[in-house]
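thread: overnight batch results

M.L. [08:02]
morning all. the overnight job finished for the chain we discussed friday. pasting input first so we're all looking at the same thing
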Amino acid sequence: MTTILVTGGTGTLGRHVTELLRADGHEVRVLSRHTVPYAVDLREGGTGLDAALVGVDTVVHCASRPRGGDERAARNLIAAARQAGVGHLVYISIVGVDRVPLGYYRTKLAVERLIEESGLGWTILRTTQFHDLVLKLLEAVAKLPVMPLPAGVSDQPIEVTEVAARLAGLAAGAPAGRVADMGGPEVRTFPELARAYLRASGRRRPVVSVPLAGKAYRGMRAGGHLTPANAVGKVTFEEFLTGRFGA
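M.L. [08:03]
and the structure it wrote out:
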């Protein structure tokens, strides 16, 4: 079995990837800013990163900070991985990073390009948004007297453990380049998702569709962040909510 380093290995996705790889018999190192013995801030790099990569065959790059620094972190990781002789770099990205001009999406696309040009063997998987993120957004909006949601926008949420299983399988294999996108089982409008959340949580809120402006909004109205042809996920949003709130 191989030695695999998972960056962001304590996060929503990374912890599941770590568990699956260990269960499959791989030696797995978890790198995050606060996890001993590989407590490393990828934005800073340095000797801690170099030490974490000694003897590593594959890196699964799950670490990400929407508030910035991902490109610098990727450059540091790539440079250290090349020096350590890592053979395979696996990256998790987002469906639509090349079609929806959100700032965070542009950053994810820039990291993809860095990996493609790194000289390392690489695999990139793009997925739709996790159920967990959609729930977090709806919970935040439900704090208001009404739930304002972007008019005409749908989503295709996917279960994070299904993504973790796919990512772990890719990490155990050879570099595959850009693999097929991975989407949740259903494309749902935001009002539908909100009403499902309200039923599951027992809350009552009016749901209001609000027209927005801008290129990113137009990209999402056009479905640039969706992949209905790759609706390979199995767990629906309602099933996810049942797991969180009970039947």
